[in-house]
Amino acid sequence: MTKETVALYLENGFKGRRNVISSRELERVLGISRNELRRRVNRLRQDTVPIAADQRGYYFAETAAEVYDTIRGLQKMRSGLDTAISGLGVRWRNLMRDSLIKLMPWMGGKGQLMWAIQMLLPIHYKTLVDVFGGSGIITLNTAVPKGCLQIYNDLNHDLYNLLFCVKHRPMALTKELSFLPINARDEFDVLRRQLQGEDFTQLYLDEELQLAEQMFPPPEAEEVKRLLQSRAELSDVRRAAAIYKLQRYSYNGNGDSYGVSSCDIQRFFRDIWECSHRLKDVALENKDFESIITTHNGPQTTVYCDPPYYEAERYAVEFPRSDHQRLHDVLAQHTGFAMVSYNNCDYIRRLYEDFFIYEVERPNSQSKKKNDIYREYIMTNYDPRVFASQMTIFGDYSSDGKIYRLVHIPERPLRT
Q1: Four-CA torsion 401, 115, 134, 358, nearest 10 degrees
Q2: Do the bridges between strand 337-343 and strand 373-380 make them parallel or antiparallel, or are there none, so unpaired?
Q3: pTM of the full predicted structure?
Q4: Is it the case that residue 307 has pLDDT exceeding 70?
Q5: Element (H, E) at 213
Q6: In this structure, what DSSP letter does residue 309 have?
Q7: DSSP 41
Q8: Of 184, 239, 268, 413, which has the fewest beta carbons less than 10 angstroms from its beta carbon?
């Protein structure tokens, strides 16, 4: 049974508005399902075959008026579907916002942009690499294709260690957290100094190691030095617990200043177990961005990059201007799909002129000004209108202070 069979059957027996056959009867006669009938009728109409329809069923159009009436009916149907899609789209974005899995606050985290990132991702890929993983918000919340390998990466070893402990040692981590209460600014500062190597033991460790060599013969000196170093260093689990609480209690997740806010320790435990379950099939890496991207350079690999914003953020790992250029260059050579988030500035827009650029507006949660707006870029080496089928559903979007729109199309797309 072909689409031409449908056309011939209608043309020979059901021509004109007066001769209508119901959808159910046509399905029975042709021996096809309702969905298959609709697909074939749609393809016939695309080929300019005048298959008309009304509430009674299908017929072969004889006049322009019959074709026009069918067009009007389809337009009304499309309008209703567009309205339904718009309403469901708002609900979808609200659900994504309200049901995000969060391990901890993190400066520059992409929780508020998760809806736009998900919408712009390609529909088909086999590996997703979260290159600048941070707190794991992208890894934890991206809906990936079935069977997709997810890889979390961050050069900051403290973040990698935290995600490792959440995944592999959640019991030990939650136990350690119960011994690390923060009740005042002084205790917060102690934890921060300890993580930064500014406590007493770290400051005098070199001197202690030198004294050990002077006071003991070689075999004993080596053993004493190992003991001193082990005492000076936080264990993996204890360090993970320290950075977790430091971020939880800091202002806006910056890890530097005490937020003076109450935290529910039981909520910490629930979050850790939820994240541990989500990470069970995720590979964890602790590499430089160029190394991880080139290692996973393949046509079925999507890399998402959320680097430190240009002249806007300060992290434990430095990211000079040369690294911004290096990141662009390695992404431009990536044979798969590449997406990168950045702050809205002229330098970044010029640097990524060979990418598709979407501008995103959202409420600025870190500003004290009322109704302050923060603008960011989400850039891709592919055309989301082609590779992300959900883009054909939503297109440009504006609602609840959140706006995204396509602002730049490259002359020669890198990925076609």
Answers
A1: -70
A2: antiparallel
A3: 0.69
A4: yes
A5: helix 205-215
A6: P
A7: H
A8: 184
